[in-house]
Write a structure and sequence with these properties.
heterodimer; A: about 120 residues; mainly alpha; 5 helices; about 85% helix; about 0% strand; B: about 130 residues; about 80% helix; globular
C-alpha cells in the first residue's frame, strides 16, 4: 500500500509539472509540439540518471515510476504525431517522431552514464 | 508567434494532481500484473487510444467542466502513459536483446500511432450526428 502512495505522490507532482510546462507552451502557439518533446527528453534523461544511481526501492518508486512516469507522456506524443499527419505536416511529423525517439534514447543513455559514475 | 496569457487555474492543477496520482497508480498496478516492458507497451497503447477519444469526443460533446477534461486527459491518461520508461526499456532491451528491443520499439511507436488513430476515428464516428466545434 505504501508503494502505491509513493508512486501516486510522484505521479501527481510529475503530472502537475507537465501541465504547467504545457500551459507555458500554450502562450506561444507553435505548430511543432516542443513542450511534449522537451518533457519527454528531460524525463528520459532523469530516469536514466536515477536508474544509474541504483536508488533504494522506495526512492525508485517515488522518483522513477512516480515522478518520471507521470511527468513524461506517451499518449500525448502519439496524439500530436497523429494530428501533424492529419494536417499533412509530413516534415514536422517525421521530425517529431525521429527527434523524440532518438533524443529520448540518447538522453536516457547520457543519464545512465552519468548516474553510473556518480 | 502570437503570445497569450499564462492560464493554469487552481482547479485544473488540483485535478491534474489527483487524476495524475490515479493514472500513475494504475500504471504501477498493471506493472505488478504483467512483467517488464510488455506492461509499458500495453499501458502506452491503451492510453494513446483513450487520450484521442477524450480529446476529440468526450471534450467536445460533454458538458464536463474544463478541470474535469484536463484532469482526465492531461492528468489520468498523461500520467498513465510514460515516455521515460519507454526510453529506458528500449535502451535496456537494445543492449541485451537487440531484436526484442527493435520489436518493442516498433510495436510501441507504430502501435501508439495506430491506437491514437483508432481513438480519433471512433471519436469522429461517435460525434457523427452532432455539430459542435
Amino acid at each position: 500500500m505504501i508503494n502505491f502512495g509513493l508512486v501516486a505522490s510522484g505521479a501527481a507532482l510529475g503530472a502537475v509539472a507537465r501541465y504547467l510546462l504545457t500551459q507555458v507552451g500554450r502562450m506561444y502557439q507553435l505548430r511543432f509540439p516542443w513542450v511534449t518533446f522537451v518533457i519527454n527528453v528531460t524525463g528520459s534523461f532523469l530516469i536514466g540518471l536515477l536508474a544509474g544511481l541504483q536508488l533504494p526501492q522506495a526512492m525508485g518508486l517515488l522518483l522513477m515510476t512516480g515522478f518520471c512516469g507521470g511527468y513524461t507522456t506517451f499518449s500525448t506524443y502519439s496524439t500530436e504525431l497523429l494530428i501533424l499527419l492529419r494536417d499533412r505536416y509530413f516534415g514536422a511529423a517525421s521530425g517529431y517522431f525521429l527527434v523524440s525517439v532518438v533524443s529520448g534514447l540518447i538522453a536516457g543513455m547520457l543519464g545512465l552514464w552519468l548516474g553510473n559514475r556518480w | 508567434m502570437r503570445e497569450r496569457q499564462f492560464h493554469a487555474p487552481l482547479a485544473n492543477v488540483l485535478a491534474v494532481a489527483g487524476f495524475g496520482a490515479l493514472g500513475g497508480s494504475l500504471r504501477y498496478a498493471i506493472g505488478l500484473m504483467i512483467a517488464g516492458a510488455t506492461a509499458t507497451l500495453a499501458v502506452n497503447l491503451l492510453g494513446s487510444f483513450v487520450l484521442a477519444l477524450i480529446t476529440y469526443w468526450l471534450g467536445p460533446i460533454s458538458d464536463l467542466p474544463d478541470w474535469a477534461i484536463t484532469g482526465l486527459g492531461t492528468g489520468l491518461i498523461g500520467a498513465f502513459t510514460t515516455f521515460s520508461t519507454f526510453s529506458l526499456d528500449s535502451l535496456h532491451l537494445l543492449q541485451h536483446q537487440p531484436i526484442c528491443g527493435l520489436v518493442y520499439m516498433a510495436f510501441s511507436l507504430i502501435g501508439g500511432l495506430v491506437a491514437a488513430g483508432l481513438g480519433y476515428g471512433l471519436a469522429l464516428r461517435l460525434k457523427g450526428g452532432h455539430h459542435y466545434d
